[in-house]
Each structure stands twice: as C-alpha cells, then as structure tokens.
Amino acid sequence: MKVTADKIFINAKAYTLEAEGVCKEAIVIKDGKFAYVGTNDEALANYDAKKVIDLEGKTVLPGMGDSHMHFFAFCQTFTTVDLGGAKSKKEAIERLAAKAAETPEGEWIKGSNFDQSKWEDCEDQLPTREDLDKASTKHPIVIKRVCLHSAVANTLALEKANIGKDFVFGPGGLVELDEDGMPNGILREQAPKIYDEIIPDPFLIPENKAKYMKQGFDLAAQYGLTMIHTYAAEIWKYTEDINDYIELNRKGELPVRMTIYLDEYFNKPYVTEAERQDPYRAAQMGGFKSFCDGSLGSRSAKLFEPYDDDPTTDGILVIDQDGLNERLYKAYKMGLQPATHAIGDKGLENVINAIEYCLEQGKKDGMTDWEQKDRHPFRIIHAQMANEEMIARMAKLPVVLDIQPSFFLTDLHWIKERVGEKRALDSYTWKKYQDAGLIMTGGSDCPVEIFSPWNGIFSCVARQDLECWPEGGVQPEEKLSRYDAVCLFSKNIPMATGEEDLMGTIEVGKFADMVVIDRDIFTCPESEIKDIQALNTYLAGKETYRRA
Ligand SMILES: [Zn+2]
User: Fold this and answer.
1) Is residue 455 part of a domain?
2) What is the CATH number of the domain that holds 160?
3) How far apart are the CA of 68 and the centre of ligand 1, in A?
4) Are 185 and 300 contained in the same domain?
5) Which is more confidently placed, 208 or 444?
6) Domain for residue 18, yes or no?
7) How many CB atoms lie within 10 A of CB 310?
8) Contact between 7 and 539 (Cβ < 8 Å)
9) Domain range holding 137?
10) 231 alpha carbon to ligand 1 midpoint, in Å?
11) Residues 315 and 427 in one domain
C-alpha cells in the first residue's frame, strides 16, 4: 500500500544541509512536513500524490532566512520615495520632483535611504532646504538619511513644523541654522522625530497597510525566504505588531515564518508542544532587543580608542555597563531571550560583560546549570569588531552572533580609513568566529540593506563588493566556505530560537520549507552567487513564489 502524500518532487539536486555535500534526488511532502527524502525509486514506490513534480536536475535548498531585520519598517519604505542608489544629488531631487508631479499639492512627500557620500556632485555635503525646494515648494518634503541619524526638510516642511529663526531643538538633537539664524533644513540625531509626530502615518489606512505588507512578503518569497526574525525599534518608530502577522497567518496569507522581537518587556505567551510542531503556524514572539552602541557609518559605534578619521570621538554607548547588565538581566529573569546590538569593539565587550553578568547573577538567584542550558542562547546582533580575547570569551558563552554580511559589501570601501589598518583586521572576521566554534546566523538589517540571502552568501564567500572588487577579496583568510555561508542563512537561523529540530534542513519530520534555485550554488562560478534567483519557494509545502 502506498502512502498518500501531498507532493512528490523527483530528479532534484537537493542539498539537505544535514551535513556538507549530502545531496538527494527525491522529496515527499505530507501534511506540511517532509515525509521522505531520498531516491526517486523509493519515493515513487512508497508514495502516491496528485502532484508529482519533475525538477529536471534543479538545485533545491532548505528555505532561506534572515536573522535580523525590520520588516514592518521595510514595508513603510514603499510609502516613501526611495533615494537609495541615486548617484547624484541631482538624481535624488529628480526622483522627489517626479513624485511631487503625481501627488496633490499640500500632501507630504517622504524620501528615504539617501546617502550623500555616494553622490558625485556634492562633496559629501548634506543637501539643504534650498535643494529640496527645487523638487517642490508646493509639497512639504522630508528626506531621511540611510542611517536614520539625519534628515532634511524643505522650506514648506519647516514652516509646517513651526521651525523658524533661531529654533533650538534641545538635548539629544540639532536643527542646523545658518549665519542669520535661519534653519538650513538639516535635522540631526533626535530632531527628525518632530516629523514622525506630524506626518500622518499612511499605515493608519488599513488598505494601505495590507497592500504594502503584501508587497514586502511577495519580495521576501521571491528571494527564497521562509524565516524572518523581525525587530521593533521604538527610537526610530519601527513598530511591530504580532497581530498583523497572526491575522495574515489565519487567512493563509503569511508566506514567511515570522518571529517578532520587541524592545520593551513583555510576557511571552506560552506555546504548547503541539503548537510548536504545527508547520502551518507561522507567527510567534521572540525575545527582547537592546542597543549597546551606534554604527560605524555615523561614527557612533563604541570603540576602545578614537576613530582614525575623527580623533575627537570614540563613539557612543547608549547605556552604561551597569544599566545594560540590569536591562538584560531583567529580561533573562522574565524568561525573555536578550538580543543586543553591538558594533564597536568596546560596545561588544560591554555586551559580553552583560551576558556573563546574567549567567552569574542567575546562578546566585537560584537558577541551576540545567535551567540555564535549557534557555535559548543570548543573541549578539552585528558583533562586527572583536579581538582574539573577546572571541575566546564569546566561545565559552551560550551565544549566537547575528551578523550582516551584506554590510561588508559597502563597508569594505571605507573601513580602513575609519578605524585604521589594525582594527580593520579585527572586523568582520567570520572565519575566526567559525573556527572558534561560534554559531553565526545571517541577516540584512533590512531596510538598511535589501534582504537578499544570495548577496549575503556572496559576501561571506568572496569578500568583495557586488562589482567583484577587489580581486581575490578583502582579507581572503576570513572567507567562509560555500557550505558554511549557506548554513548561515538557513540551517543556523533556527538555532537562535531553539527550533533546529523543526526547520533549517531538508530532513524527514521537519517543516516542508524549501527553495528551488536557478543554478547550483555549490558549483557555479563564485561571482554568480549574488545573481542566484529563486524559481519556486515553498512554506509547509505550499508554493509561496513561482518565477514567471
Ligand atoms: Zn537592526
């Protein structure tokens, strides 16, 4: 008697990732899980299905993931003019003017992701209100820099916010004034918040929200993603509401498994074992997010020694050591998994200290070894710079490092100038992490970078930018193998949430999440890895994307 299954895939080149090099021919899916993985003959001898799909030798991988991004914030960028990729100030202003031409007079226009350091006509100077007035004087316009630490408003937007002569923002931010005391349009650090309060939120209109979330998910499925760990960040008004995802999941319209991290304390709902094992349940709460420092791009990542290209600063700690210890420990005691942002070497050291503090304090408060082992690992987000001593300390701790290989595609151009030769060598040292036995997961921090796992894998393997520069890669000794790089974006991600028994590889009993791609990622020319396209993406056996 043959067993009735939902789908049988034959003639696949399925890299299961259970170990390096394991490749299978046939996959059988039943009730949202992998029921059989092996040979064509056995699959067809033992299973029956309405759908038998001949993959004609195409490559299959487990569903891809992104271990750190801001999904809701990404969807909100669809309501703004994306200025990312503009090659000049002129081009950015043209994009805004085009939007103004199709927008009723008086309505707000928002621009996002501008990066004047990549503009060829402005010598790295921020644009001013006069520049934006060229796009329109009839629409209030506000644009935000890619790092979110600065924004620029046009004259009408300044008027709407009552920002006039001699305006003072107060602590934490700056409204720049010219010699006459008039605002020039540039708002720094906390000052852009003024606009978060007065520009109407386009997502208050439910149809808008549904439309743009669908657009975001369609793109995620198109990149082969089936797992996303998404983060709220209150300081940037990056909200996340699990009910949005639960509702989509209930309607059968959630194509990606979403795990939601908040930067406030919350009571984590209890999940039964049956719920945990349900392949059709795709929305859940994760842990508790904290910031330790800033970013290298805006010289706010906290370093032991000052920046090489600005000796007046060594970065910013957003919370002192004691404060961080207590913040993490409170979460840990509540049973919430701490996930903490650290980019600079000093920032990372403080996070390591805080994790050690949590473990020690937990023991003092009566936690047993067994209870501590049973917890999900501490997550360190970014972990971009670490010396050998710090690597050794991390290797002894229950941690997962959520790294952003796609940052390196950009940062490799200026990292040496910013932190000097020696510290650059201690940055993005993924092979050293790997060799120390540290578990890394791959993420994009989208909307900072697009959530293409293929770009991320390429970055780990080639250590070049997307134009394949420089030849041979930066610090080639830090390259990861293709297998390890693919695992970063698949197999390793569920290790951060204690779900490695459910997903991440193609094995019997696991959720039937997988992606069919257009070339063999293990044998194609290295430069092609970033160009890989998903042909079909499946979540719990259901097709979520098919390339037309
Ligand atoms: Zn982030």
Assistant:
1) yes
2) 3.10.310.70
3) 6
4) no
5) 444
6) no
7) 10
8) no
9) 109-198
10) 7
11) yes
Å from CA of 181 to ligand 1 middle: 36
For residue 524, how far is its CA from the centre of ligand 1 (angstroms)? Answer: 31
Whether the pLDDT of residue 446 is over 90: the answer is yes
Q: What is the mean pLDDT of residues 324-342?
A: 97
Q: What is the pLDDT of residue 231?
A: 96
pLDDT at 298: 81
Average pLDDT over residues 176-205: 90
Is there a contact between 53 and 479 (Cβ–Cβ < 8 Å)? no
Mean pLDDT of 496-501: 98
Say how many Å lie between the CA of residue 50 and the centre of ligand 1. 43
Residue 404, pLDDT above cutoff 80: yes
Task: Return the CATH number at 435.
Answer: 3.20.20.140
Tens-digit pLDDT profile for residues 38-61 = 999 999 999 999 999 999 999 999
Q: Residue 241 C-alpha to ligand 1 middle, in angstroms?
A: 16
Mean pLDDT of 155-169: 95
Ligand 1 centroid distance, CA of 11 (Å): 40
Q: What's the gap in Å between 149 CA and the centre of ligand 1?
A: 14
At 272-322, the pLDDT tens digits run 999 999 999 999 999 999 999 988 888 889 999 999 999 999 999 999 999
CA of residue 190 to ligand 1 center, whole Å: 17
Assign 3-class secondary structure to 1-69: CCEEEEEEEECCEEECCCCCCCEECEEEEECCEEEEEECHHHHHHHEEEEEEEECCCCEEEECEEEEEE
Q: Tokens for 409, please give them.
A: 């595609």
| 77 DSSP assignment | G
Distance 447 CA to ligand 1 centre (A): 9
Structural domains of the chain, count: 2
Residue 497: pLDDT band (50, 70, 90) is: very high
The confidence score (pLDDT) of residue 94 equals 96
Query: Are 337 and 454 within one domain?
Result: yes
Q: Is 3 a member of any domain? A: no
Mean pLDDT along residues 72-86: 89
Last residue of a domain, one of 198, 224, 259: 198
CA of 266 to the centre of ligand 1 (A): 19
For residue 70, report the distance from its CA to the centre of ligand 1, in Å. Answer: 6
Mark whether 362 and 473 lie in a shared domain: yes
Whether residue 39 lies inside any domain: the answer is: no
Between 548 and 441, the higher pLDDT residue: 441
Please tell me the number of Cα atoms within 13 Å of 231 on its side-chain side.
26
Q: Are residues 194 and 300 in the same domain?
A: no
Q: How close is the Cα of 297 to the center of ligand 1, in Å? A: 14
**Run of H or E residues at 432:** helix 430-435
349 Cα–ligand 1 center, Å: 19
What is the average pLDDT value for the chain, to the nearest integer?
95
Are 175 and 213 spatial neighbours (Cβ–Cβ below 8 Å)? no
* 348-363 CB burial, b ≥16 within 10 A, e <16: bbbbbebbebbbebbe
Cα 216 to averaged position of ligand 1 atoms, centre (Å): 17
CA 449 to ligand 1 centroid distance, Å:
10
Boundary residue ending a domain (460, 480, 500): 480
Region for 437 from its dihedrals, namely left if φ exceeds 0, alpha if ψ lies in -120 to 50, beta otherwise: left
Residue 158 Cα to ligand 1 midpoint, Å, equals: 29
Residues 302 and 410 in one domain: yes
Q: How far is the CA of 408 from the centre of ligand 1 (A)?
A: 15
Who surrounds ion ligand 1 at CB < 5 A? 445
Q: Give the mean pLDDT of 453-481.
A: 97
Looking at the predicted structure, is the pLDDT value of residue 496 above 80?
A: yes
CA 230 to ligand 1 centroid distance, Å? 9
Q: How far is the CA of 232 from the centre of ligand 1 (A)?
A: 8
